[in-house]
Amino acid sequence: MANSLSYARAYLDMLDRIYRETAVTNDLTAAENQYRFSAQNAQSIYLRKMSLQGLGAYTRDTGYDTGTATVTWESHTFGQDRSKKFQLDAVDATEAMTTVAELGAEFMRCYVVPEIDAYRFHKITSLCSVDTTATLTYDTVMAAIRAGVKTLNDAEVPRENRILYVSSTIYQAMQDSGEFYKTINVQNNNGVISTEIMEFDGMPIKQVPAARFYTIFDFATSGAGGFSVNASGKAINFMIVYTPAIIGVVKHMAPKLVSPELNQSADGWLYAYRVYHDLFIADNKVNGVYIHSLA
Fold this sequence. Notes:
By secondary structure, this protein is α+β, with helices and mostly antiparallel strands. Helices cover about 25% and strands about 30% of the residues.
């Protein structure tokens, strides 16, 4: 029993690394000081919201104009409680620990991480809505991105801590854009050719796999499970996100391992996985996101 518990702990650490290294939206996971949970309701989370007032007149008789500072906590409810369990027959699992680890890593890489990314883009779009729709080419892509940057600048969204998420199609259009003057010297670069674009106007660029980058997804509740694009979903071209506006929270993420000798329903390893998560944006920060999708 002790060995199983120790393995489960080490296994959880491994899966946590897999999630953080492969999730496109890992940068949207909020710091713990940005929210607090309800002691009475496990499904509730509170986001801090501060409201101030502008300058008033200073008078010689009464001095400073009096203002009001209001700090409130917006209540939100978690919407994503997802799970799955698998059973590995003891005879088939000749090297049970290795088999369970491979199963868990594959499940995490192919199903858990893509779904969390997809849900976060889905939720951001539902909260902020799409700003512009169009089919972009290498002739129009840079102007479209600059228009998004200008929209955030005009809304006085800080220029720091922005991320530019792009589809693979848009990334290629950026690479092919005639606005860049490309110089490739193979001889002086040890034969290595790279057209990679790492950053645009101070924003790190992250490419999002096409299957995760739509405006609306459906999330299955049983059967084969997983997620799929909703009939009304549109492919996202790019999304500019001011990361402090986003509160991505994974409240509970843990595997459960039951060895064959403790499995009362079958002679085999039982692997169960549950992730309890969601994403939130405070009402006064929804202008910190710009979304451009296909029409």
